[in-house]
Batch of 4 targets.
Target 1
Amino acid sequence: MSSEVCVEPAAARVPARHVAAAVIGNALECYDFIVYSYFAVQIGRAFFPTHTAFASLMLSLGAFGAGFVSRPLGAVVIGRLGDRVGRKPAMLLSFLLMGASMLTMAATPTYAQIGLAAPLLVLAARLTQGFAMGGDIGSTTTFLLETSPLDRRGLNTAWQLGTQGVATVASGLVGLTISHLFGAEGLQAWGWRAAFLLGALILPFGLVLRSDLPETLETAVETPIRALLTQHGRLIGLSFLIIGNINVSYYVLGYMTTYAVTTLRMAPAAAFAAPIVFGVCTLAFSLAGGALSDRIGRKPVMIWPRVALLLVAYPAYLLLARNRDPMSLLAVTAVLAALSQMAGAGALVAVTEALPVKARCLALSVIYALAAAVFGGLTQPALAWLLHNTQGGLAPANLLMAATVIGLAAMMAMPETAPLSSRSKGWRPQSA
């Protein structure tokens, strides 16, 4: 099959509504993801009632984890659709599936009302959400890159990570507000559903925005996965380690609230401020990293903040473990998030840019989904186990440093891909 793909973006700036349309799905799925984790206890009681609260919570978390399992399948199906039919149809499909999952969560009757059908519907919703999330990252990131002028590729693509910060702040504020407004009884009865319904309000606007997007794929293409691995195996392996490093950093810092409450014995009010700081820093420094990568290249931006993160992670957690006060918690969260997310933006742009154009949707979707399933799914359970079986509360620093060393090795082996960087003379868009 022919493999002509439009890879040279227009000289004009991408309209803001197109950037918003691309990243709105990522923001919505992150919001859904975080809201579920906030209300896992209430969801467990509603759909997975058992003789003990712990067993109910574990079943609820098990349904939550099912989304990780379906991500790779969504990556293959929707990613292939993005390379064969177009980026726009893939983005519309993933957004519709996300909306269906969120509405199902909000509307499903409890186990007491419809019996076994209730947990089965919730499980189906989480599998659908994971399926959609697996395919959305590849199609939207590819779209952002391919529609951007060469001197703004980094900044525009970095919005993909930046919206995770927006979603983190929004979900945190919604969770805290709902928890404050409703008592335990009201929260259990329907309050947690309000958080999903608030997210669902964005669905019509997202569909209108995505329906108006241009298409960047000119001719349908098809690249078998086996051929992709054979021809680009080294690049895919490096990309998997880099995206895995991004996931480990994200989930280690996302564990900060639980770490502060369970390990440091800090007050919940102070601990719940940490994700707000994390979200703000994710937005600000992802965009800063993307913009900087347009000026000096992808590799310096993804490598040097990671080096700084490697150097400060242990002292930062040591300070936090000794002081155990809100100021230290927020300062450590801010510094680690700034370094991690700045590097993450440069890395995401570099990986997307380096992947072969005719299989970019599929390749990026599968790499990201597998990295999220492996590293995202295991990081926080591993942290909980390490903190339970070690002394000093420094397990997060050790895990973060180990992942950073592996990630740095992969980053240094990656080529420089920035078209306007002084390090990328002779650069040509990927076409194979």
Target 2
Amino acid sequence: MVLEVARLDVIPGRELEFQRSFAQAQTIISSMPGYISHELKRCVEKPSRYLLLVTWERLEDHTVGFRGSPQYQEWKRLLHHFYDPFPEVEHYEDLDKA
């Protein structure tokens, strides 16, 4: 399994709108092959910052499968205009699996 960690900095003042759009968008990601689970966390100190944690079966399920899919275009349409700067995304694996 691979954990995708995305730091999402939302334009201040647009947090509630982002959260409503994310509620729609999460149905897209959760329907993708290789998807296991996800969580969206909001920063206490910086309320315009969120962490998106998505567990995938394999790295390629995210980087190739999801990002190369038509569904990703809808994901982008719903969410990408909220970010400034564009999110930093990294992938992590358990140490016992490395």
Target 3
Amino acid sequence: MPKGRHPLKGKLVCKRKHDDMGKVTHYKVHYVAKGFAQIPGLDYDKTTALTACLESLCAIAHIAASLGWELHQFDIKTTFLNGTLLEDKQLYMEQPSGLKIPRKEDWVLHLMKSIYGMKQASRVWNIMFNSAIVSWGFIHLSCEWCIYFRLSPSSTVIFSIHVDDIFTTTSSREEMEAFKALLQTKWEISDLGPAKFALGIAITCDCPSHTISLLQTTYINHLISCFEIGDAKTADTPMVTGLQLRHPDDSAPKPPEVLKWRQQTLYRELVGSLIYLAVAT
């Protein structure tokens, strides 16, 4: 390895992928880098997350519903493994435990492509994806870099990209098939068919009535289970009656019941989850 550099460590990450009803559809196992140990300026400089705004997804759904167009989803397999690292940004990684090459246990791996967990993995993928899409004649909105469109006298294609999920609508089924074939020339994709589930949101389309419904019932049930509030009772105002709020004294000792509550309650996670519900649907 070059002097002054250190190899990244890795670990296995196992995930369950769910459908719009919350059922497990398949299992995924990734060997990822421990990106939290990367040093800014040495191991990476810029980071970019390719995530579309929720308003973008709703806008595309609205266009599809009003014009009677189909909504479709594609997923690009092993997304981050497609990005090629630049020559001046070389990275190294320790050999996975249990898979070390005999008599070369102290050797390291020279990464040619990005890998899940790396700080810059999403940016490397973004650069590659944008380059390919633009070469096919697509234009991204100046106000929303995750929405691309292509217009022609006979067809229209509009889609949003959220990391590796493509949410698209086209003016005809033939154009949808042509767009799918275009993606397959560059990457291995999964054709998820008509849009049903995206970003934790269930999608129900009714083309004859030109309506699309967005639901988060599965996500809400997951929160109820995760935060163990299944037996909670409803209340118009979920606050203790007559509670007097005051600024806490950090120097004063905390009552045991407060310390216990703080350890058991994922307060920030709960607030963030409720904000996502409020913004999404």
Target 4
Amino acid sequence: MPVVKQLSIFLANKPGVLARLCETFSDHKINIQGLCVSDTVDHAVVRMITSSPERARTVLEDAGVLVVETDVLALRLPDRPGQLAVLAAKLSKAKVNIEYAYGTTGTGGAKLVVRVSDMKKALKVLNVK
């Protein structure tokens, strides 16, 4: 399924806060499948894909942590030069903005998480079902 739930979690930007979050997820048997951390002066925005977004959200909300759920694309691309350029060009031609992205490469290709301005149009343009 190319559309997945991403959790954006707002945490204090201090040593140990992310470690405690990860330990809590581990205690609840929630696997972290994707992660991006953006820092600001006083807080960090942790964007996360998990094995159970509903359970993760409940755990966070029960702990009083601000969390926002968003639909994002989770794509697999060949690990070859130019693949991101092709994807970005298709979206650009359709006037779909890439708001942010994060990913990795490794055995089996590249994995890319993308937040777009128009999910329906992006799925159609990328021919993703």
